[in-house]
């Protein structure tokens, strides 16, 4: 199999799919729409998890685990205030296989082993969690509950793409319960800010914070906060959402608490989540035609060292030096791998590490041993440099920060140059077609206009930005009055 | 709800169930046989996970993620060499709910949305993983594959108990692929040793290493290595297993590799796992009638500090001191919580921390401020002591080690005093009934005898110990010749 990727210009979508598979991030499985996350891809996801988990705990949250299955009746309770909730889910109806009496060697579902009540594989866990919280909450002393869960969820998507939209995906879902509306709103905003900080500082992906319109809001939410990122092909990607759920779930599952004054009141709720979709955002923000580009914060190996040698003696000499270098780099918290595989030649190793986005490659050959130098190759700029080995550790340390910052800056420049203020619908369509990106335009606030624009252009309102300035204007489609600009884009 | 537990003597099983719920470890859910792992219980599981994950990585393994679902046809392929594999699984047959036309407000499974092929919710992942490995392995250069997965699995158990046997549980499953039999056997043994080291050193639970008999072996395995622990009620608990799978799965899924010499050979395999069952082992090894007892390594809070005060001024003075103490303890890597909740009195806090097994409690009151002392209460020995505050950090540090060791020693003494050498079947039955524990007895090596003993006594052969001495004798049941003693016990 050729390691070379289709270029982004040629076919962006093909480039993406090839990169995911060839860089060993993930692949399709024998199960329709479900992916295998390969060790290298999973190592990146573990870095995402670890940092987010740290941030959740720092803001007072604890992890817990709730059942994979949700009885159909709990779904019905939720359904009352979430009519729009998707019903494409995996449904368990039976609990036993048996040898098929008509086909020796084959198995069949035992028709006798039918469940009394069907179980839904969780597409999200509000229903089972709020049904559980009912038992945990009696009085104000039991509040707040600040719980998060790392879990797999299943949504029966018809058209799937690795990381971006898969039938099963991994995510975290926070579910909190509060005594007051003010506190719950504050929590939903806090977690959206946590996501923004994480995605920007850790993943080097700039985002716009805002809230969703009525039609794009999570069913059952009163307000949906979100962070929106921009991919290289000019399409937006929703990177995380945080919902203020009001008392909707408390009412659906009858969860009340005794206030300090002894009154019975419904509990206020939030939920918030990010998923393995972030891997898609990572790839489509930083990568290039040579493969993955990783910000140092997310790289399983920040540095890889490749020895160039002609004989065992040279390899041994290089190895001795590399051990010293690795010790120093590790003492500074830098992850480094010595790629001393004898089954691959240096060229093949270079190609692999480039494809897999290792931020910095160090090559050491006999000449370097003589001269006291090493060759550094940056993945982000694809530049090489021979430097003296003396201050290697400081140089590498500095480069880690610089690469992280450079990637963020580059993505930010791209994003900022792809926000276009537009005041008439013809320009709206032209910009969308020729340049893409976010279109900042006036909107009359009606769902009718929003849906009409979507129908005509496939662009949706990604968010009403948190920092939207009040500004009167005319709706870009209807011409009706508007009091501020919202962001439209085509989206993943 | 009373916080007091039923005593172990009165009803061991009831004590266990009450402890799990009252100590906030887990509870039953709305889904038959599935549990909710509560934040406190999950925090303990996270400690187990973190340490095991570290050990897996240290021994060269990487994490990955495979689909939750397994198509029925893959099960059939596996079935050929694993006839005995349990078929009690959750089966997904449909992918859509719809509003029930006959019952407004209710949902039903859309009969049109039937899957072409049923999907099994993974009870274990050999089938889907080996079907994937087929694509990963071409030559010896692709081996070994050393992969682990942290996942939820489902087995449709009829009789469930929190942590010990639940329909859904959390576990890790390692799945490795090797070029040679020797290497695979070594891996299976290595991982059983990793489990033993972890359970003994980290969880303070002594275990016996050994292999399973033919009838107790995992279906599809050539050899099953295991670690067996002994619970306080004299029943054994299998704490972990590691399987040498031979070439069985490679053959079932046609996974061959080109050797260095260019020959095509089937790949050798292992799999190994531990689960949330370890939480059950933890509880039943160390806890007492007052509640959970945690070894410091597994305690979410190793130390809790409770202030005793009559007014805000005293609380403030105590808090100032506590901040200093916490800073010092944390600098030594000790996790400490200041329980300054104003909604609970000290007595209630003491009771809660005792029930939840916090290894060390520090109480500080006005008298202590005057005298420069604090009160230490050890959970394991239930002893209290007033000590000078001067060398508190050193004392606490020392106690962490001491408590960990004391718990292990106590469990080891109990275990060792419950291994009884028995040479006739009458004594076998009496010991089992009166004392329980492991019975070390000669066995003729036949499945017939093993099953007969199980039928008559409910005791099974837990393992053929790794350190079994060759010793000729007569089978405790049949009188036929035997060449060593194996360990029988009733088991969870």
UniProtKB/TrEMBL annotation, chains A, B:
InterPro entries: aa-tRNA-synt_IIb (IPR002314), aa-tRNA-synth_II (IPR006195), aa-tRNA-synth_II/BPL/LPL (IPR045864), Anticodon-bd (IPR004154), Anticodon-bd_dom_sf (IPR036621), Pro-tRNA-ligase_IIa_arc-type (IPR004499), Pro-tRNA_ligase_II_C (IPR016061), Pro-tRNA_synth_II (IPR017449). Its EC number is 6.1.1.15. Keywords: Aminoacyl-tRNA synthetase, ATP-binding, Cytoplasm, Ligase, Nucleotide-binding, Protein biosynthesis. GO terms for biological process: prolyl-tRNA aminoacylation. It is an enzyme of class 6 (ligase). Gene3D superfamilies: Anticodon-binding domain, Bira Bifunctional Protein, Domain 2, C-terminal domain of ProRS. Residues 27-295 form the Aminoacyl-transfer RNA synthetases class-II family profile domain. Transmembrane segments: none annotated. It comes from the Bacteria. Consists of three domains: the N-terminal catalytic domain, the anticodon-binding domain and the C-terminal extension. Homodimer. Belongs to the class-II aminoacyl-tRNA synthetase family. ProS type 3 subfamily. This is Proline--tRNA ligase. It comes from Bizionia echini.
């Amino acid at each position: 199999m050729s390691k070379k990727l289709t270029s982004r210009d040629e076919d962006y979508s093909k480039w993406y799919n090839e990169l995911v598979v060839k860089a060993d991030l993930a692949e399709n499985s024998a199960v329709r729409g479900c992916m295998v996350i390969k060790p290298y891809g999973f190592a990146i996801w573990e870095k995402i998890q670890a940092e987010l988990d740290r941030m959740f705990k720092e803001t007072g949250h604890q992890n817990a685990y709730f059942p994979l299955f949700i009885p159909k009746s709990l779904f019905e309770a939720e359904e009352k205030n979430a009519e729009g909730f998707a019903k494409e889910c995996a449904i368990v109806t039976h609990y036993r296989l048996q040898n098929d009496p008509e086909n020796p060697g084959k198995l069949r579902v035992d028709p006798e082993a039918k469940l009394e009540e069907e179980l839904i594989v969780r597409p999200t866990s509000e229903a089972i969690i709020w049904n559980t919280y009912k038992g945990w909450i009696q009085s104000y002393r039991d509040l707040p509950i600040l719980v998060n869960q790392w879990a797999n969820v299943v949504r029966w998507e018809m058209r799937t793409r690795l990381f971006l939209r898969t039938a099963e995906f991994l995510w975290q879902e926070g579910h909190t319960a509060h005594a007051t509306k003010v506190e719950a709103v504050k929590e939903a905003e806090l977690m959206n800010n946590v996501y923004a900080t994480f995605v920007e500082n850790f993943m080097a992906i700039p985002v716009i914070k805002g809230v969703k319109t009525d039609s794009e809001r999570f069913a059952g939410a009163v307000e949906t906060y979100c962070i929106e990122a921009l991919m290289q092909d000019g399409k937006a990607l929703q990177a995380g959402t945080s919902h203020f759920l009001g008392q909707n779930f408390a009412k659906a599952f009858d969860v009340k608490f005794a206030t300090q004054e002894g009154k019975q009141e419904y509990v206020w709720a939030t939920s918030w989540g990010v998923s393995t979709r972030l891997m898609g955002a990572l790839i489509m923000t930083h990568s290039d035609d040579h493969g993955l580009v990783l910000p140092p914060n997310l790289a399983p190996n920040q540095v890889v060292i490749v020895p160039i040698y002609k004989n065992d003696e040279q390899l041994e000499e290089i190895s001795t030096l590399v051990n010293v270098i690795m010790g120093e780099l590790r003492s500074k918290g830098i992850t480094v791998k010595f790629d001393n595989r004898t089954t691959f030649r240096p060229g093949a190793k270079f190609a692999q590490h480039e494809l897999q986005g290792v931020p910095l490659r160090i090559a050491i050959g006999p000449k370097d041993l003589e001269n006291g130098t090493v060759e550094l190759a940056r993945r982000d700029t694809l530049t090489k440099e021979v430097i003296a080995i003396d201050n290697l550790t400081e140089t590498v340390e500095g480069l880690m920060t610089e690469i992280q910052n450079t990637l963020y800056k580059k993505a930010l420049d791209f994003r900022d140059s792809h926000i276009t203020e537009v005041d008439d619908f013809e320009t709206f369509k032209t910009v969308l077609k020729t340049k893409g990106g976010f279109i900042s335009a006036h909107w009359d606030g009606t769902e009718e206009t929003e849906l009409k624009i979507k129908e005509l252009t496939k662009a949706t309102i990604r968010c009403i930005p948190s920092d939207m300035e009040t500004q009167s204007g005319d709706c870009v489609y209807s011409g009706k009055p508007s009091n501020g600009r919202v962001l439209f884009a085509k989206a993943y």
